[in-house]
Amino acid sequence: MYMKTKIFILFTFFHLTIFAQESKMSNVEIENFKKDIIADSKKIQTLTADFTQYKVMSFLDKPIVSKGKLYLQNPKAMRWNYTQPIDYNVIFNNGKIYINDEGKKSSVDLQGNKKFEKLNQLIVGSVSGNLFDTNDFVITYVKTDKSRIAKLQPKIKDVKKYIKEIQLTFYSGQSTVTEVKLIEPSDDYTKILFTNKSLNKTINASVFNP
């Protein structure tokens, strides 16, 4: 009986400790955080970063892990260059999405598809960190010892069909997003971690050619 009580107390303490690590920001902290991120994001002309993507689905025992490199040219050109486990790239440029799946090419016109256009805006905004000046989300701001997190829940009906919540994690002292988590209505999610980030270095225009 004593052992069970001890285990219960230990579990309760551990449970509370885990959740105590994340707390809501004060109104002053939120305003300062938003000002810093928005101001710095406006200075970003280009961004390159390595990324690791984890796709977690309820029917799989392990996440699907992909790796590659991201290229961003503000305001709208972006390339996701997947190198593992397969060669695959997605380019957002000139109002279109271009996909190259191991040599099989296709494209989608964003201007003729408001749904994809909005998703493109979400993706670009997620990576640059500048999603705070929109009325399209209910936003909750929290913090931990090492990071600040913005949790965005879409208001738009069409977007809700695909995205339940976007979580943007910024490590303390950094003004660019380090982790993006896209949670689907089913609670399956995609988590992307960015490393080796480089800002405002010249990117060859050919990178964004399909």
TrEMBL record:
<dbReference type="InterPro" id="IPR029046">
    <property type="entry name" value="LolA/LolB/LppX"/>
</dbReference>
<protein>
    <submittedName>
        <fullName>Outer membrane lipoprotein carrier protein LolA</fullName>
    </submittedName>
</protein>
<keyword id="KW-0732">Signal</keyword>
<dbReference type="InterPro" id="IPR004564">
    <property type="entry name" value="OM_lipoprot_carrier_LolA-like"/>
</dbReference>
<dbReference type="Pfam" id="PF03548">
    <property type="entry name" value="LolA"/>
</dbReference>
<keyword id="KW-0449">Lipoprotein</keyword>
<feature type="signal peptide">
    <location>
        <begin position="1"/>
        <end position="20"/>
    </location>
</feature>
